[in-house]
Design a protein that fits this description.
Elements: H1 26-32, H2 39-49, H3 51-56, H4 60-87, H5 93-111, H6 115-135, E1 153-154, E2 157-164, E3 167-174, H7 179-191, E4 199-203, E5 207-210, E6 221-222, E7 227-228, E8 234-235, E9 244-245, H8 249-252, E10 268-271, E11 285-288, E12 307-314, E13 328-335, E14 340-341
Antiparallel strand pairs: 1-14, 2-3, 2-13, 3-12, 4-5, 5-11, 6-7, 8-9, 10-11, 10-12
């Protein structure tokens, strides 16, 4: 049975858009979702990510000023970053040195009005900041309710490559904020469950969906129990210490809340469930294709009704090429397999 997303997604009027631009970059969303609160690193991250609007408008003088502000932030905050890292037993000296070398190159690219060079240096800096932030995460941020003990969970992150008939998609799945959903996905990848499965739904500008096995089963049948394994709806918001389980935002009256893992990025990965229950998802997942401007965080009807558990970070250009005739040839865990805890 194909689990359908039977939700109409209206295109909101421009006047109804929330204040500020929603974050639409998967990398930025993943950095923001890390359970890490080192303030100086966050300031560097958000200041650089904020260059996107000026870059689109070709406001090079502002970009030059921003690059200089980043150098000032590093000069003033580098010692605090290093001190916090040392308290956690993490070495960041070499990374901070590289950061100090890259920031002047960012300014030079802005002065030359060289968009290609600016983007290339910015990407390297953000990757470096993201790496330091990930290194500063200490342990798992919350306890999962004991009622879910029989289910696998991902206690961290993993990178999964989906090798399809149209090319490769590289994904990052986030167990810090959706441990049961991400854990079920990685567990099924490790079992080879998705290998050979077709995309059973491929709707332009909406979703790609797969994970429906051949035969009568609606999802993954656990060989230990002989029963269909189902995963609860799992959505985390920043104001709560752990995810909300089996409750939609509508159930809770949180109509304008934004999940830590929102569907504001094209390529967001979501766990499918039926139109009659929120806890009957087993193996099917979808990749969100809507342009984020039409479904911004806080106004779309996917956030708060379905669980996002990761993002496509490479190969997003292939999403428009995949159709219902395509298949996942092989799904492979590239890194993070050690973060999977599978019952039994």
């Amino acid at each position: 049975m194909v689990l359908a997303l039977l939700i109409s997604l209206p295109q909101p009027a421009a006047a109804a858009l929330p204040a500020g631009d929603p974050v639409t970059d998967p990398g930025a969303l993943l950095r923001n979702a890390l359970p890490m609160d080192q303030r100086q690193l966050r300031d560097l991250q958000h200041t650089l990510e904020g260059s996107s609007t000026d870059l689109r408008a070709k406001r090079w003088s502002r970009l030059t000023q921003r690059a200089r502000r980043l150098q000032k932030l590093l000069n003033e905050g580098g010692a605090a970053i290093e001190a916090d890292a040392h308290r956690l037993g993490v070495e960041v000296e070499e990374q901070l040195k590289r950061l100090g070398e890259l920031l002047p190159r960012l300014e030079q690219a802005a002065v030359r009005e060289d968009r290609t060079a600016f983007l290339a240096v910015r990407a390297r800096i953000l990757a470096l900041i993201g790496s330091m932030e990930a290194d500063l995460v200490q342990g798992f941020p919350f306890s999962i309710p004991r009622q879910y003990d029989p289910l696998p969970r991902l206690l961290g992150r993993a990178r999964v490559r989906l090798h399809t008939t149209a090319g490769d998609l590289l994904t990052v799945v986030d167990g810090y904020n959706a441990p049961l959903t991400a854990g079920a996905f990685v567990d099924l990848v490790q079992r080879g469950f998705y290998d050979g499965l077709r995309f059973n739904r491929a709707e332009a500008f909406y979703i790609l969906q797969t994970g429906d096995p051949e035969g009568e089963a609606d999802g993954f049948v656990d060989p230990r129990t002989g029963q269909l394994r189902t995963i609860p709806l799992e959505i985390r918001i920043a104001s709560e210490e752990q995810p909300l389980y089996d409750l939609t935002f509508e159930d809770l009256g949180l109509f304008k809340e934004t999940p830590v893992l929102p569907f504001s990025a094209r390529g967001a990965m979501g766990w499918a469930h039926s139109s009659t229950a929120v806890d009957d998802g087993s193996s099917q997942f979808f990749i969100f294709l809507f342009e984020s401007e039409l479904t911004p965080a806080g106004l779309n009807l996917i956030d708060g009704r379905f669980a996002a558990f990761g993002y496509v970070v490479e190969g997003a250009d292939l999403l428009d090429k995949l159709t219902s005739t395509d298949r996942i040839l092989e799904a492979i865990v590239i890194s993070g397999a050690e973060n999977l805890w599978a019952h039994g």
